[in-house]
Write a structure and sequence with these properties.
Layout: H1 3-37, E1 45-46, H2 53-59, E2 76-78, H3 83-96, E3 99-103, E4 121-125, E5 132-135, E6 140-144, H4 149-159, E7 163-164, H5 175-180, H6 188-191, E8 198-204, E9 210-211, H7 213-224, E10 234-241, E11 243-244, E12 249-257, H8 260-272, E13 280-288, E14 300-307, H9 311-321, E15 332-335, H10 337-344, E16 366-374, H11 380-390, E17 397-404, E18 427-435, H12 440-457, H13 488-499, H14 502-513
Parallel strand pairs: 2-4, 3-4
Antiparallel strand pairs: 1-2, 5-6, 6-10, 7-11, 8-9, 8-10, 12-14, 12-15, 13-14, 13-17, 16-18, 17-18
Length: 531
């Protein structure tokens, strides 16, 4: 070995040792800072030397595609149980050069709440901040961000069977993350999104201050209701208004094999679904794929619905608006609203409500989600390409979820919250591909399939910009650069896909409340000052 090479290796080795020593020094000072700012925080801090660190890190890392062994781990995980712990985490991270990732449920599709390739970083895990206080006298509830949707539904049902909240169907999703991106569900045609029903909130800002709606001002309050998580602060609690539901609701599910008639029904569905009574949501789940283990491919269309009323009135409505579907009482169940949330989550109406309290989703399937919005009916010719791709042998399991708009979603102005996808759209499409085989080949095959599908759909969906749903984060459409200095022009490529013209206002709010871009991630809103 030459002297030059040996010298180079010596320099590299020396640099590595010095860097490690500097990081250890930084780590020690960071922990001291936390203790100074919050004396009781020590038992809530987890570092890689703690025996429970790994299980805590992975327990809510719900997408194996992004949480792989080679993924950089957080320097520290903090599980705050009080606002002061979050304040300490913000102040000390800012003064010691750590990034913060905030996790409430771990369902974010790209893992941005618990993964960062920009070291060093910490995780603030909100699971201990999960209190729920329901007030049926004024039809409101205070919900901390670490609660799950299922826990919120359960607590509402303990007080009333005719009050509800318009959020999603997966009970293990964290409430904070769900609301930060809008939060759609089966009640949205009647009451809008979860974020549309927020009346107050409190958060910790980039300076460690605790602000409620009055203190934060209407601009920041507007931004956190659908402007995406991780950009403006850590929202710790939300005051939401509860909505009225009848004592009896009706849920239906009708499966049809993807033969010629079922395909015709799906094509016809797009002409009527957004025009139906706002008390009715009728969606479609198209499934395809070629499962491993020798299972038979299952290509079908499942029509699912929730109607705020009894089955007699629902059948009468369907016979008027969409008789071709042939919905009958045998396809439907009359339940209470809270029981309908069990059905939507894959349980039965006879299962105990305590099933909604499940905290962990034991997901072993890697997945990728992409999204689109449709503002004019897709042609039969285009649907032929959809059917062909759902029968492709290149992926293991795939779903296309078609979720209708209209109703209340068409009445809320596009500028009322950052979530701008309103009256101009007929329905939303979610493309979901999953695979159990954890290999590079399986990952590349399935990712290539969904990306090609997305490219194929480009002429048939919204454009200029092509709209996307921020709670289905998709790093394929663009990212901030590594140093957090992305310009407005660079960020608007993906920002306008998520927020439309509202992205401009989000940038202005960011510039006002966090001009140094402390709260940031791969798709956070950048401040205007950096452009």
């Amino acid at each position: 070995m030459s002297a030059t090479v040996m010298n180079a290796l010596f320099i590299l080795s020396s640099f590595t040792v010095l860097w490690a020593a500097a990081l250890a020094h930084k780590h020690e000072h960071f922990l001291q800072c936390l203790s100074i700012h919050s004396r009781d925080i020590s038992k809530l801090i987890y570092t890689p030397i703690n025996s429970s660190y790994s299980s805590l890190l992975t327990s809510y890392a719900l997408n194996p595609r992004v949480s792989i062994p080679a993924t950089p781990n957080p320097h520290v995980i903090i599980k705050p149980s009080h606002l002061s712990h979050i304040q300490a985490a913000v102040v000390c991270s800012k003064s010691h050069g750590f990034q913060i990732r905030t996790r409430s449920g771990g369902h974010d599709a790209e893992g941005l709440s618990y993964i960062s390739h920009h070291l060093p970083f910490i995780i603030v895990d909100l699971k201990n901040l999960n209190s729920i206080t329901v007030n049926i006298e004024n039809n409101t509830a205070w919900v901390q961000s670490g609660a799950t949707i299922g826990e919120v539904y359960y607590e509402i049902a303990k007080k009333s069977r005719t009050l509800a909240f318009p959020a999603g169907v997966c009970p293990t999703v964290g409430f904070g993350g769900h609301l930060s991106g809008g939060g759609y569900g089966w009640l949205m045609r009647k009451y809008g999104l979860a974020a549309d029903n927020v009346v107050d909130a409190y958060l910790v800002d980039a300076y460690g201050k605790v602000l409620d709606r009055e203190a934060m001002g209407e601009d920041l309050f507007w931004a956190i209701r659908g402007g995406g998580g991780g950009s403006f602060g850590i929202v710790v609690g939300w005051k939401v208004k509860l909505v009225a539901v009848p004592a009896i609701v009706t849920t239906c599910q009708l499966e049809k094999n993807l033969d010629g008639y079922a395909k015709k029904l799906v094509y016809q569905w797009q002409y009527v679904a957004n025009k139906m009574d706002e008390n009715l949501l009728l969606g479609v789940n198209l499934t395809g794929g070629n499962p491993t283990q020798g299972a038979k491919p299952n290509h079908k269309a499942t029509f699912f619905s929730l109607f705020l009323g009894n089955s007699h009135d629902l059948i009468a409505t369907m016979n008027t608006t969409f008789p071709q579907l042939g919905l009958t009482n045998n396809d439907c169940q009359q339940t209470s609203w809270i029981q309908s949330t069990l059905l939507a989550a894959g349980f039965t109406s006879r299962d105990p409500l305590e099933f909604l309290l499940t905290k962990t989703s034991f997901n072993t399937v890697a997945y990728k989600i992409k999204s689109d919005y449709v503002n004019k009916p897709i042609s039969k010719h285009a649907f032929k390409g959809i059917w062909d791709r759902l029968k492709s042998p290149k992926m293991e399991s795939a779903q296309l979820l078609l979720f209708p708009y209209g109703g209340r979603m068409s009445k809320i102005p596009t500028w009322e919250t950052p979530f701008s996808h309103r009256a101009e759209f007929m329905y939303k499409i979610s493309y979901v591909v999953g695979w159990a085989e954890q290999s590079r080949e399986a990952s590349e095959r399935n990712l290539n399939w969904v990306r090609e599908f997305y490219e194929y759909m480009s002429p048939f969906v919204s454009n200029s910009p092509r709209a996307a749903y921020v709670n289905y984060r998709d790093l394929d459409i663009g990212m901030n650069n590594e140093y957090g200095s992305t310009s407005y022009e660079e960020a608007r490529v993906w920002g306008e896909m998520y927020f439309g013209d509202n992205f401009k206002r989000l940038v202005r709010v960011k510039n006002k409340v966090d001009p140094l871009n402390f709260f940031r991630h791969e798709q956070s809103v950048p401040p205007l000052a950096l452009s």
